[in-house]
Amino acid sequence: MKRFHVHVGVSDLDQSIAFYSGLFGAAPSVTKPDYAKWMLDDPRVNFAISQKCGAAKGVEHLGLQVEDQDELAQVYGALEAAGRPVLEEGATTCCYAQSEKSWIADPDGVVWEAFLTSGEATVYGAGPELERLASAKAAAGACCAPQVSAPATDTCCG
Description:
By secondary structure, the chain is of the alpha+beta class. It has one domain (about 5-140): 2,3-Dihydroxybiphenyl 1,2-Dioxygenase, domain 1. About 25% of the residues lie in helices and about 40% in strands. It contains three helices and eight strands. It has an eight-stranded mixed β-sheet with strand order 2-3-4-1-5-8-7-6. It comes from Novosphingobium aquiterrae. This is ArsI/CadI family heavy metal resistance metalloenzyme. InterPro entries: ArsI/CadI-like, Cadmium-induced_rsp, Glyas_Bleomycin-R_OHBP_Dase, Glyas_Fos-R_dOase_dom, VOC_core.
């Protein structure tokens, strides 16, 4: 069963952990010096927050977390059917987890990830330049939309 994912950038991790723990009625399932995650069943959501120097505050990206390779293939098919450039990141370490993921941005530049988590990691990790996906919205109407290619390290989650 798929799980909705929301990642929010925050300015004060401790205050945000206290706020969201009260809101959700639960402590985070993962807490690191710069990151926290709640794996909630009601509603079924993977809600993560992080505090990174210079990172934007507020909703960073949305996503769909799957439980197995069959669901991942199904969601990857949906990304392709959406008709937007897809950044296939593949196997990665991000947000203290090992995952396989791909990224897409909607016509207004809202970035989405689709991912399958296979294990934990001891480091936050890195991810692709998501701005390239969001900026593809401006070029999507043009004749020469930019190629979304190999990922570079910048931001991420999962």
